[in-house]
Design goal:
The protein is α/β, with parallel strands linked by helices. The protein has two domains: 104 residues, no CATH class; 206 residues, Rossmann fold (3-Layer(aba) Sandwich), CATH 3.40.50. The chain is built from ten helices and 13 strands. Helix 7 links the parallel strand 7 and strand 8. Helix 3 runs antiparallel to helix 10, helix 6 packs parallel to helix 7 and helix 7 runs parallel beside helix 8. The two termini are 58 Å apart.
Length: 328
């Protein structure tokens, strides 16, 4: 794409400049009045006709103001020259478990639930991926696409922060279904790399499709899956805000390993908030596919200084027409 140091965004308005000479000619013709009086030539000789210099100045200021107004209508712009920058070129779908077990607290010295930790670290991850498009799928006993792929990080962050447990039926974990939902968002992507980050703390529930089916669909569209198991791969005790200390089932690490290995990703176990942060930081470092792309050109409208110049000229014309006229 060609870029220019200076350009008009609406150049067709400049065609109005062709009308300026015509208007001035018509104005002259209209004012060309001839009087057949004996003293007419004497008035001209003595310089007593209405042809003083100030009239020419006023007309010139008015004409120049009209020309500048037409130029403003054409939107003069200063354009930055095109350059190349390195961008990541990765489309990422976040797939977040919002089932009931995400309300558990893994440690008594951390008042936050698994869900609170997952949201906070997801927001931190989103904020770091400035040049990537990201989207969001949440799942429990259903899978819902909350946000399609977007470069609008503020909108996505607002979506993530607004998620609450219980928005959808929390009595199940449709893991494979959520993966297929995310694939549906990524399948038409033209990005250099397509990534899915799946975070869950439980086993797939009854009614879910076979994980192998979701894996094959993801592989078909070249989607790499990073699987994060929140909790532990061993049964242990945890604190529930309503029921106190309870037994927690182990994360199905074997299944998460299978999902990651077959799609070219990696599996992680996040046992606490620090682990979660380190997992996201690791994924952030692993997924950096650099490529050169044109930098979007920036246009800076130049109408403000021109408008100020027109204002000064009009004020000068008004001053000359009202004050200087009377002095003559």
């Amino acid at each position: 794409m060609n870029t220019y140091f200076f350009r008009f965004a609406s150049p067709y308005f400049l065609l109005l400049l062709l009308l300026v000479p015509l208007i001035m000619w018509l104005r002259t013709k209209k004012r060309a009045t001839y009087y057949l009086y004996p003293c007419t030539q004497l008035l001209v000789t003595e310089g007593m006709t209405n042809g003083h210099l100030y009239k020419k100045i006023v007309n010139a200021l008015r004409l120049l103001s009209i020309i500048l107004l037409i130029i403003i209508a054409a939107r003069p712009q200063r354009v930055d020259e095109q350059s190349k920058v390195e961008v990541q070129g990765i489309d990422i779908m976040l797939v977040l478990d919002v089932s009931g077990s995400m309300s558990y607290q893994d440690y008594t010295d951390d008042a936050r639930s698994r869900f609170d930790v997952a949201k906070e670290e997801a927001c931190r991850f989103i904020s770091k991926r400035l040049n990537d498009a990201l989207g969001l799928v949440i799942f429990a006993n259903a899978a819902v696409s909350r946000c399609p792929l977007t470069m609008d990080k503020k909108m996505l962050l607002d979506f993530v922060k607004s998620i609450q447990l219980g928005e959808i039926d929390h009595t199940g974990t449709l893991l494979a279904t959520s993966m297929v939902t995310a694939v549906n968002r990524l399948k038409n992507s033209k990005a250099a790399s397509k990534v899915m980050i799946v975070l869950t703390d439980g086993e797939p529930s009854e009614g879910d499709i076979e994980p192998t089916c979701a894996i094959e669909i993801a592989k078909k569209f070249g989607i790499k899956i990073y699987a994060i198991g929140i909790g532990s791969d061993q049964p242990r005790m945890a604190y529930h805000p309503l029921y106190g200390v309870i037994n927690l089932p182990a994360v199905n690490k074997k299944l998460l390993d299978t999902i990651a290995d077959h799609t070219g990703g990696r599996c992680f176990i996040a046992r606490n908030a620090q682990d979660m942060r380190e997992v996201y930081d690791t994924i952030d470092q692993l997924e950096k596919t650099k490529q050169e792309m044109p930098l979007f050109t920036q246009q800076y409208d130049l109408y403000v200084p021109i408008a100020l110049l027109i204002l000064c000229m009009l004020m000068l014309e008004l001053f000359v027409a009202t004050c200087f006229w009377l002095c003559l």
